[in-house]
Amino acid sequence: MRPLIGISCCVKGFGAFNTPNHAASDSYVKVVLGPVGGLPVLLPCSGPDCVAEILARMDGLIFTGSRSNVWPEYYNGPAHAEGTPEDRVRDATTLPLIRAAIEHGVPILAICRGMQELNVALGGSLDQRIQDLPGRIDHSTPSDQHIPLSRTAKAHDVKLAPGTMLARLAGNKDVIPVNSLHNQGVQVLAPRLVAEGWAPDGTVEAVRVEGARAFAYGVQWHPEYDWERDGLSRDIFVEFRAAAMGFARERVGVKVAAE
User: Fold this and answer.
1) 42-83 tens-digit pLDDT
2) Residue 172 falls within a domain, yes or no?
3) Does the predicted TM-score (pTM) go above 0.85?
4) 250 is a catalytic site residue
5) Rounded distance, CA 37 to CA 124, Å?
6) 50 and 164 in contact (C-beta within 8 Å)?
7) Residue 43 lies inside a defined structural domain of this protein
8) Is 222 known to be catalytic?
9) Per the domain annotation, does 168 fall within a domain?
10) 3-state helix, strand, coil in the chain (%, to 5)
């Protein structure tokens, strides 16, 4: 039996009438079916009332990236610039879900917007439009502007803290190249988060939840885009798989197949 992996959705307009749909990128479904070895379950933006029932069924949670930004009122930040995409229904679902998952020991992997949600959910704050801040690089596109916008192009390096999970997976390297497709980033790190990776401009790129009962990590880049060709990206999901399978064994009391 494969572990059930919840994938956070966004609310997006589709079709001629711009009808709201709950959706997640196909890349997350593929990575769950691939290196995670799980059964993907799309989690609609249902609000906080469904959190307990979701946690009772899931063996792991992936909090996804998105074009939308976390609503600034959740971290006492300034209003977004006009035209900035928001998804307040998603925020109302993911923030309490993150807190409850950590409390109950459900493994979580937070990617891009998901890492920003992780920081806000635990009491941190965010910078908006990092590219507009003094001394910061543009994290929304590859740093080499001659390279067309790409989900897999390596945009900048990330310096890793020694002795961490990512450093181990990278063969104890202290610097790795990553893609970069975000505008927001960590401003003040949440009290329970420990930074484990930084961009050249100091932007926090990887975090773990200190004292978490299970796997609880966030990365600002997108390993789901290049896991088929990048060993480190794949290994991040393999580590998550091990945690989800272990949780599934405890949850249902049966052996979960490795494949």
Assistant:
1) 999 988 999 999 999 999 999 999 989 999 999 999 999 888
2) no
3) yes
4) no
5) 32
6) no
7) yes
8) yes
9) no
10) 30, 25, 45
